[in-house]
Amino acid sequence: MNRLAYLPIWAITLCSLLLFSSCEDNDGVIFSIQDDIRLGQQVSQQVDSTYRAQGKLLERNSTNAKTQQAYQSLDRIVNRVLNSGQVKYRTEFPWTVKIIKDDNTLNAFATPGGHIYVFSGLVKYLEDEDHFAGVLAHEIAHADKRHSVKQLQRDYGIAILLSVALGNDPGTLKTIAAQLAGSLAGLRFSRDAETEADNTSVDYLAGTNHYACDGAAGFFIKMQQDAQQSSPPEFLSTHPDPGNRIQNIQQLAQQKGCKTTSAADTDFQQLKNALN
Ligand SMILES: [Zn+2]
């Protein structure tokens, strides 16, 4: 059945005006992949300039040897996940990754259209490369499954979001960038989206043939043990219950029969050392 039949008349009109390059087969998202990419460019430029102004963005073109080492190590970890053969928009999205030097923030996030950010606080907190890869896989899944753009579409409406993607609404762009980075009240994903991101992290990590496919569960276990965390990051949102998430991820890993033994932590240790 034609999905367009469920869309309101104005949406069909917009589609027919070719404002969107694709209005089909996108799971309720009126935004096209091209619009995701445009929105991601806008949001990542905003995130970059915000943290650059605070002196916290580690620049990829830095001549500092430790910064260069940090990116070499981080890229190896991220690329294993991206090259797992499981990332749907592997070639369409740019998939950049940047480090924000903020040891007090335990977070990572991905914008729509595939721009990943890692706070140094998360790297310092975690001890296991598989757990770190699990968090990255979860965030990559939110972008790849288009959860973030779906949620933004719900929160702001299609017209405003398209205006932001086209660079015509700097005020809303700043708000969205701050929401994604968690410095405002964060973007709240649905329970289904969180579960799908957890499940997808198992597929991504299994596809690496390197990491324990239940790496994200290891992360939640550590977070539960250190429950004194005052402001939980996006991936630790209270829904679904973290205990259920651990069980769900581990059950899925068992069903799939994928490897659950840890990989060597070489790249992660190098990354940690470079951020000291
Ligand atoms: Zn999440």
Task: List the SSEs and their pairings.
Elements: H1 9-16, H2 33-53, E1 57-58, H3 65-82, E2 96-100, E3 108-111, E4 115-119, H4 120-125, H5 129-144, H6 147-156, H7 158-165, H8 170-181, H9 191-208, H10 215-225, H11 242-256, H12 266-274
Parallel strand pairs: 2-4
Antiparallel strand pairs: 1-2, 3-4
Helix pairs in contact: 2-7, 2-8, 3-5, 3-12, 5-9, 5-10, 6-7, 9-11, 10-11
This protein binds zinc ion.
Zinc ion binds at residues 138, 142, 189, 194, 197, 234-235.
Description of the structure:
Residues 72-252 form the Peptidase M48 domain. Belongs to the peptidase M48 family. This is M48 family metalloprotease. Keywords: Hydrolase, Metal-binding, Metalloprotease, Protease, Signal, Zinc. The model is unreliable at 1-25 (pLDDT under 50). The protein has helices at 9-16, 33-53, 65-82, 120-125, 129-144, 147-156, 158-165, 170-181, 191-208, 215-225, 242-256, 266-274; strands at 57-58, 96-100, 108-111, 115-119. The radius of gyration is 18 Å and the shape is globular. The protein is 55% helix and 6% strand. Helix 2 packs across helix 8 (170-181) and helix 3 (65-82) packs across helix 5 (129-144). The chain folds into 2 domains: 1-30, no CATH class; 31-274, no CATH class. The protein starts with 8 loop residues before the first helix and ends with a helix. Bound molecules: zinc ion. The site of zinc ion (ZN) has 7 residues, from helix 5 and helix 9. Zinc ion binds at residues 138, 142, 189, 194, 197, 234-235.
